[in-house]
Write a structure and sequence with these properties.
Chain A is mainly alpha-helical. Chain A contains 19 helices and two strands. In chain A, strands 1-2 form a two-stranded antiparallel sheet. In chain A, 69% of the residues are buried. Chain B folds into two domains: 104 residues; 174 residues, no CATH class. Chain C is built from five helices and no strands. Chains in contact: A-B, A-C, B-C. At the B-C interface, helix 1, helix 2, helix 3, helix 4 and helix 5 of B face helix 2, helix 3, helix 4 and helix 5 of C.
Chain lengths: 494, 331, 133
């Protein structure tokens, strides 16, 4: 097994790409069976990703040689396109598979109208395939194309309910995404003009600090920040995520946003690494604190369940920005940041799915009027609470470990003599309190006395999947060591 | 001397392009903006010829100016008919207090407020200025032309751009086909199609012209597709030309669109990606890798993919013009 | 004269003009509100990117870089797809709200919630029923 693993890896990587594309095409051609293709396909894709990760770990490479690169069509870079798998992309592929599987199963119950099913599944399978390809891409221009695959299918899914709010949210989301993509592409073009290659590894080898690198870094990072809704470019997020169907919100907040963040991280650990200066890090960190405060304040004020969750995404992504200055002091901290993003994605997806179940039962999602439903639906409230606890970072959850590690990195900054480290530590700790506030707003009515009303019947998928995913999010702490180990298998990263 | 003439030509062209783009974005009348945008596309095609990119010029004229222009014009017509319909629906509605006609709102954009002028201009100037600085510091010619040239003999075709698109970077091209398809799936998910608002011109002129134009378009499309293996041309340009012919046919009979049954229609739309991926998977199992071909088979396989891609692109562009999904798709 | 022609070589002035087009599109995107104009502005930004790319490809003495040209072709097709979808969204939005501009901000707390998981849902299905020919 151990000897065969390195030889099998390239085939398995190409196979995963081909499989996810084949499912999307099959569902497009055969919409009547699209939900079956999607349901069974989700299981198969998840199984293949897990197999791939087993192969990747069994290959047991040294961190320096851990990246598996596959030349598509047999053409090596710089002529051809390379797929690129390392610890970072492997971790996020597994995350995508877990959330994707949960969302697919949930959608089996959620999207039941035969006509809507035919529209929903092909788009969702294209989105999933796009995410897999984005995580495996090793070429700057190909990244732009995969970003477009992801954003076009995501926008179509946001508009899916067809209300004024949803279509308007989708419109804003589309314009913002095209703007982000064009900005990213302009950066790619500038880099190509300077170095004449598009492959990320080759680009990294040729990078030196110059006007092209600076401007490309600004354009590409700004484009991705718009897409990831990082503060202050977050204004589109709540309208889009809050008005999309619940499984779509779960994927958008859990995976699509995380995908853009992944790309920022990958670029700044690769070609743009020499550009990161302490002053820049502090600026990004301050943006993170602002995102944390603004997002939490909005989440504490919002009247609708899904709006609360959507604003909390803005807040939680503040942590990822705060992590930048920490990483400049302690380069190893990036692994903690990725782990935090993974736990956040799992918890956030399950909160959105639980919110979708409650909204379905109640027929609305106005928090003030949900008491009766909450009291009657213990299982879903438990899922909401469990995932919420992970978001807050209470002990014994994945979120706790992630935040504990972040705090440790923050304290390390203070010990390293940086006064501003105090602000980071206060923000990380305080953010947990704010999160407790808005999570309590969602679940507290369940513990008041009052009438109970289970509302509309929900399908078993919608009943159990949020709980399952919440348990996974809470238990993610046990996978912490494995995740951090997988992440060390990223060449070029500290 | 001829160098100087070329420089003058470049400057006039670029100033013209920037001027048209500026006028387009400054228009308050949407129709005017769209016409200026189509002009902009045609001027761009000229610029691409000047930059020795005839393939791109062809694509820009057919897709950038042609198809995009048709899409924009039909959108304006749709917006107009929506507003007219809404007004007819509510005859008692009091007149707009500002005196602005609702119709004006759909097809006009009032001049932007003065307070955004300075920040927007400053922002654009800073971004543009930084990009220009970066570009002026770049070295001459560091591209991939030599590498491509070296591998032309094993690519299966004689035209470098086709070799890059369908062989060296076939993955990008595959995903590009996928994006066209996803855009259509997105447009279809928004609802069924509405009747086209176009008012067919009475009389024999349109049908007569079509009878002449459509065969010409088909012949041109097929020629451009065939030429792509050794000269400028290829699947995308050919698909756009065939798509344009399809759009003309749709326009000639806006009231009775052909109702293709769901399965063959979807099969046709996805034929390009499906065949591309199928051949790509065979390449993974017995060839050099995913989306690769054994060199001896490269030429015929590329031709097969291009034919399927052309048909799918043409069909998809027509469907995007019609916008909503056909009623048959829900059965 | 020689010197001037060298300074104004296509490999330099076309990328410059492309960068200006990009900035111009950005300016239009910020300033204008009608969605069709915003889509036009994004398209002009895209054309600016393609002009930079093709200008870079035309630098130097030899034949132009075919990879850059192939990328541009891909980019043009992506742009037309995104534009077509965006226009379909504009039409849909105008049909619902009567105006081709975006609603300000997130849905307010009392806007009707539409949940596609419920039976009675589906304004789109209703809408389709009305418009069945």
């Amino acid at each position: 097994m151990n000897e065969a693993a390195p030889a099998m890896l390239p085939l398995a990587i190409s196979g995963l790409v081909a499989l996810s594309l084949a499912l999307a095409i099959l569902a497009t051609v055969w919409p009547r069976q699209a939900h079956r293709i999607g349901g069974y396909g989700a299981v198969v894709v998840t199984a293949s990703v897990l197999t791939l990760s087993a192969l990747f770990l069994a290959a047991g490479p040294e961190p320096e040689s851990a990246a598996t690169r596959v030349a598509l069509g047999g053409w090596e870079a710089p002529l051809g396109l390379m797929l690129h798998l390392d610890g970072l992309s492997m971790t996020l592929l597994v995350l995508t598979a877990v959330v994707g599987l949960a969302t697919s199963l949930y959608s089996l119950g959620y999207v039941h109208d035969p006509i809507e099913r035919r529209q929903f599944w092909p788009l969702w399978l294209w989105l999933w395939a796009g995410l897999n390809m984005l995580l495996l891409s090793g070429d700057a221009f190909n990244l732009y194309i995969t970003l477009e695959v992801v954003s076009l299918s995501a926008v179509a899914l946001v508009a899916f309910t067809g209300t004024a709010a949803a279509v308007s949210g989708a419109m804003r989301y589309l314009l913002v995404n095209i703007l982000g993509s064009l900005s990213f592409l302009m950066g790619v073009v500038l880099l190509f003009g300077e170095h004449g290659v598009l492959d990320l590894v080759l680009l990294e080898a040729r990078t030196e600090i110059g006007p092209t690198e600076r401007m490309a870094a600004v354009l590409m990072t700004a484009g991705l920040m718009v897409k990831a809704a990082l503060f202050p470019l977050h204004v589109w997020l709540a309208p889009a995520h809050g008005s999309a169907p619940a499984p779509v919100s779960a994927v958008l907040s859990g995976l699509v946003v995380t995908g853009s963040f992944y790309l920022i991280l990958r670029l700044w650990m690769g070609p743009f690494a020499p550009l990161a200066t302490p002053a820049f890090g502090i600026l990004v960190g301050l943006l993170g604190v602002a995102a944390l405060v603004w997002g939490s304040a909005q989440a504490l004020r919002a009247g609708r369940l899904k709006s609360i969750v959507a604003y909390s995404t803005v807040a939680q992504f503040g942590y990822l920005l705060i992590a930048f200055p920490l990483m400049l002091v302690d380069p190893e901290a990036w692994k903690v940041v990725v782990f935090f993003a993974v736990v956040h994605a799992l918890a956030k997806a399950s909160v959105f799915l639980a919110a979708g179940t409650l909204q379905h039962a109640a027929g609305h999602d106005r928090v003030a009027e949900m008491g009766a439903i909450l009291r009657a639906r213990g299982r879903t409230v438990f899922a909401l609470g469990l995932a919420g606890v992970s978001l807050m970072g209470l002990p014994f959850t994945g979120g706790f470990i992630a935040k504990y590690l972040l705090l440790e990195a923050g304290l390390g900054t203070i010990l390293a003599g940086s006064l501003i480290g105090v602000l980071w530590v206060v923000a990380i700790a305080g953010g947990g309190l704010l999160a407790a506030g808005y999570v309590l707003r969602m679940v507290a009515p369940a513990f008041h006395h009052g009438p109970r009303d289970a509302g509309e019947a929900v399908s078993p998928w919608m009943d159990w999947v949020p709980l399952g995913l919440a348990v996974v999010a809470a238990a993610a702490g046990f996978a912490g060591t494995l995740t951090l180990h997988t992440l060390t298998l990223t060449p070029g990263a500290p | 001397m001829s160098d100087l003439l070329l420089v003058v030509f470049d400057l006039v062209l670029l100033v013209g392009l920037l001027g048209v783009a500026w006028r387009c974005l400054a228009s308050t009348d949407l129709f005017r903006a769209v016409v200026l945008f189509i002009t902009f596309g045609l001027l761009l095609a000229l610029a691409w010829v000047r930059l020795e990119a005839p393939d791109i010029a062809l694509a820009e004229a057919a897709i950038g100016a042609g198809i995009t222009g048709a899409l924009l014009l039909v959108t304006l017509e749709r917006l107009r008919s929506i507003v007219v319909e809404r007004r007819r629906g509510q005859p008692d509605e009091p007149p707009d207090p500002a005196g602005a006609d609702a119709l004006l709102h759909a097809l006009h954009d009032p001049p932007p407020p003065r307070r955004t002028f300075v920040p927007a201009l400053t922002f654009a100037l800073v971004v543009g200025g930084l990009m220009v600085t970066a570009l002026w510091h770049q070295p001459d010619a560091v591209g991939l032309e030599p590498v491509v040239d070296e591998h032309m003999d094993v690519s299966g075709v004689d035209h470098p751009i086709t070799a890059v698109l369908l062989n060296f970077r076939a993955y990008d091209t595959f995903l590009e086909l996928a994006i066209v398809l996803i855009a259509l799936l997105g447009a279809w998910s928004l609802g069924r199609y509405d009747r086209l608002p176009a008012r067919p011109a009475p009389g024999p002129i349109l049908p007569g012209t079509l009878r002449l134009l459509v065969p010409v378009a088909i012949v041109t499309g097929v020629y451009i597709l065939w030429a792509g293996s050794h000269a400028p041309g290829g699947a995308f340009q050919a698909g756009a030309i065939l798509g344009a012919a399809g759009i003309l046919l749709v326009l000639a009979r806006p009231r009775d669109l052909p109702m293709a049954p769901s399965s063959p229609l979807r099969l046709g739309l996805a034929a390009g990606v499906a065949l591309f991926l199928a051949i790509g998977i065979v390449g993974l199992l017995i060839g050099p890798g995913l989306l690769g071909y054994p060199p001896a088979w490269a030429y015929p396989l590329i031709i097969v993919i291009e034919v399927a891609a052309t048909l799918s692109i043409a069909l998809t562009l027509v469907a995007l013009f019609i916008a909503g999904r056909p009623a048959g798709d829900d059965r | 004269m020689e010197w001037l022609a060298q300074q104004l070589a296509p490999g330099l002035i076309y990328p410059t003009a492309g960068a200006i087009l990009f900035a111009l599109g950005l300016y239009g995107l910020i300033r204008r509100h009608h969605l069709v104009l915003r889509i036009l502005a994004l398209n002009i930004m895209g054309s600016g990117v393609f002009m930079v790319l093709l200008g870079i490809a035309a630098r130097g003495e030899g034949p132009p870089d075919p990879v850059a040209q192939a990328l541009t072709l891909t980019g043009i097709v992506v742009a037309v797809s995104a534009t077509a979808f965006a226009l379909a969204l504009v039409v849909r939005l105008t049909r619902i709200t009567g105006q081709a501009v975006m609603l300000p901000g997130p849905p307010d707390d009392h806007a009707p919630v539409d949940d596609i998981s419920r039976e009675e849902h589906a304004p789109s299905a209703e809408y389709d029923r009305e418009h069945r020919e």
